[in-house]
Specification:
- The structure is a single chain.
- The protein is an alpha+beta fold and about 270 residues long.
- The chain folds into 2 domains: about 15-115, no CATH class; about 120-260, Gcn5-related N-acetyltransferase (GNAT) (Aminopeptidase, 3-Layer(aba) Sandwich), CATH 3.40.630.
- The protein is about 35% helix and about 30% strand.
- It has helices at about 15-30, 65-80, 100-105, 140-155, 160-170, 175-180, 220-235, 250-255; strands at about 35-40, 40-45, 55-60, 85-90, 110-120, 135, 180-185, 190-200, 205-210, 240-245, 260-265.
- The protein has an 11-stranded mixed sheet, with helices on both faces.
- Strand 7 (about 180-185) and strand 8 form a beta hairpin.
- The longest helix is centred in the first third of the chain and has 17 residues, at about 15-30.
């Protein structure tokens, strides 16, 4: 088991960031009806959900001659279940030109996401409160499904897949998933926001920070990020990480996160 990473300048941070991300997403590959393939060369998962984030390659350490075969295998799964998929290209991906090779084979860049990190000692101890806003931990199958619905709406997933995502989330029961932490934010008793915390590979990863459109611009996203970071600090972790969406980037910068790497997603 990897020890706690003490500082954001650690040489092990980028490896840990990738491993933490894999821990979050691969839990979906172990859900009922899903597929997870994990070898030293490739880690990919497929849920069949009609959103690219829920299918694809999480890690690739391939030889150039193996890229086309791996791509063809994934494309066969896409054709079979007709759900789109992504390739994550990060700082530890090999070969170094994997993104270019995939573009030659017909894939296109979908998103560029900065990887960010923060020293947890720098996180504010008492974030600004919001009137009638509370945060609760997910603790049952019913709240797992609720978390997924709010996250789907806040992220902007199509309405037609929201219930599919909720059903998928409610099937996650493996030990790796149980080791994760999910949070729902309530405003005046109504669920409006989500986030997740993954303590893995010596760091604390923040995921699924989402607020429904009607509740935005009140500081809720900031609170849904800071509270899990404070919990991670209480658990003994020293570094927090995340991959920032364009909407969340200025919030994370204001909290104190700094860019440490970049990931490209191709579909």
């Amino acid at each position: 088991m990897q020890g706690i990473i003490e500082v954001t300048a650690s040489d092990e941070l980028l490896n840990a960031l990738e491993s933490n991300r894999i821990a979050y997403w691969s839990a979906y590959g172990r859900a009922k009806g899903s597929t997870l393939i994990a070898t030293p060369e490739i880690i990919w998962f497929y849920t069949g959900i009609q959103v690219p984030l829920f299918n694809g390659v999480l890690s690739a350490k391939l030889k150039p001659n193996d890229v086309r075969v791996t791509l063809d295998n994934l494309q066969a799964k896409i054709v079979e279940q007709r759900a789109p998929a992504l390739w994550w290209i990060g700082p530890r991906t090999t070969p170094d030109n994997l993104g270019s090779l995939l573009e030659q084979y017909g894939l296109q860049p979908a998103w560029e996401l900065p990887g960010m990190a923060i020293d947890l000692e720098a996180v504010e101890d008492q974030p600004k409160t919001i009137s009638n806003f509370t945060i609760e931990k997910v603790s049952s199958v019913e709240t797992q499904a609720l978390w997924a619905r709010i996250c789907a709406v806040g992220t902007g997933f199509p309405d037609r897949v929201t219930e599919d995502v909720a059903r998928l989330e409610a099937t996650l029961t493996d030990p790796e998933y149980k080791a994760q932490h999910r949070y729902v934010g309530f405003l005046n008793g109504t669920p409006v926001a989500t986030s997740a915390l993954v303590v893995d590979s010596g760091i604390a990863g923040i995921y699924a920070v989402a607020t429904i459109p009607e509740a935005r611009r009140q500081g809720i996203g900031r609170m849904m990020t800071v509270m899990p970071l404070l919990e991670a600090r209480q658990l003994g972790y020293r570094v927090g990480v995340l991959q920032a969406s364009p909407m969340g980037f200025p919030i994370y910068k204001a909290i104190g996160f700094q860019d440490v790497c970049s990931s490209t997603m191709l579909d």
